[in-house]
Amino acid sequence: MLIAQISDTHITTLDDADAKFPERVKNLEAFVRHINALDEKPDLVMHTGDVTHGGKPEYYETVKNVVKHLSVPVYFARGNRDISENLVDALKDFGGGNIVDGFLIYSIDGFPVRLIAMDTHNRESNIGTTCSVRLGILDGLLKEQPDTPTALFMHHPPFEVPTSKYPFQFDDQVLADAFLDLVSEHKQIAHLFCGHMHRHFKVDLETCSASCVPSLPVDNRLGEFADEMDGKPLYQLHRWNAKNKSFETELCAVDGGN
Ligand SMILES: [Fe+2]
Questions:
Q1: Around ion ligand 1, which residues have CB less than 5 A away?
Q2: Cα torsion at 68, 22, 57, 10 (round to 10°)?
Q3: Cα–ligand 1 centroid distance for 66 (angstroms)
Q4: Does pTM top 0.85 for this prediction?
Q5: What pLDDT is recorded for position 110?
Q6: Residue 242 Cα to ligand 1 middle (Å)
Q7: Are 2 and 237 in contact (CB under 8 A)?
Q8: 48, 130, 131, 209: which has the fewest Cβ within 10 Å?
């Protein structure tokens, strides 16, 4: 199984007076062309949130008009800059996604690894959080298939990213621990795929591994990258190694991104 992960596209609209970064749309268009031209295409694209910068329906229309050209399904997790209802209205037909008790949490089945989109949105701030309702929904999904290798994809990392200026992006350690305790109770979870940090990071947790992907747009990514990646949108390819029950990740650049 091969997954392409993108994140933090923070799209508005090209003709919106508030649009500060129309090149982000061009970066996403270049990514779509790039994926469609690959000899070995990923099974799916997952977007780990902040699809738009503000969640207006017309912003998702902009995204829709780009990703509709993708030749593989694309799935979305909610970021702090997204509005779930508008996201699902515009984009669910490309992959899936439904809102349960107000939270965008759903599974993607039928692949060697089951994927679950987790909602880490915080109504009070831009950092992540969780709650008993969400943990209950996730626990229920995980109990459905305890023997199927599973990966979660979500916006906010519930762990510290020490290379960041703002390393801890979860409400507090108690809630992060509650989340991670649930993860460690379900041994089928192989990996947590996160966004939000706009930078690459990987860490081994108690019972699984976890990572953050650099943002796709050139203008808002953070961290150090090889010179040949200058000016190119970035994404990650995650290849499932069934023998090791883990993902092997490759950082990839998109040519002709602007
Ligand atoms: Fe974010």
A1: 50, 79-80, 196
A2: 90
A3: 21
A4: yes
A5: 95
A6: 31
A7: yes
A8: 131
Cα dist. 112→149, 241, 243 in Å?
A: 7, 10, 12
DSSP state of 215: P
Q: Taking a C-beta distance cutoff of 8 angstroms, is the pair 113, 238 a contact?
A: no
Q: Which of 33, 30, 26, 35 shows the shortest CA–CA distance to 4?
A: 35
Calculate how far, in angstroms, residue 23's C-alpha sits from the geometric centre of ligand 1: 19
- What is the 52 CA–ligand 1 centroid distance (Å)? 10
Q: Report the amino acid identity of residue 186.
A: H
Cα(2) to ligand 1 centroid in Å equals 24
What domains are there in the chain, each with its CATH number? Answer: 2-253 (3.60.21.10)
What digits encode the pLDDT tens for the residues 106-153? 999 999 999 999 999 998 899 999 999 999 999 999 999 999 999 999
Per the structure block, which two tokens stand in for 224? 């150090």
Return the closest-CA partner of residue 3 out of 62, 43, 31: 43
* Distance from the alpha carbon of residue 93 to the mean position of ligand 1, in angstroms: 23
State both tokens at 246: 């883990």
pLDDT digits (tens, 9 = 90+) for 199-244: 999 999 999 999 999 999 999 999 999 999 999 999 999 999 999 9
3-state secondary structure of 59: helix
| CA 216 to ligand 1 centroid distance, Å | 13
Q: What is the CA radius of gyration of the chain?
A: 17
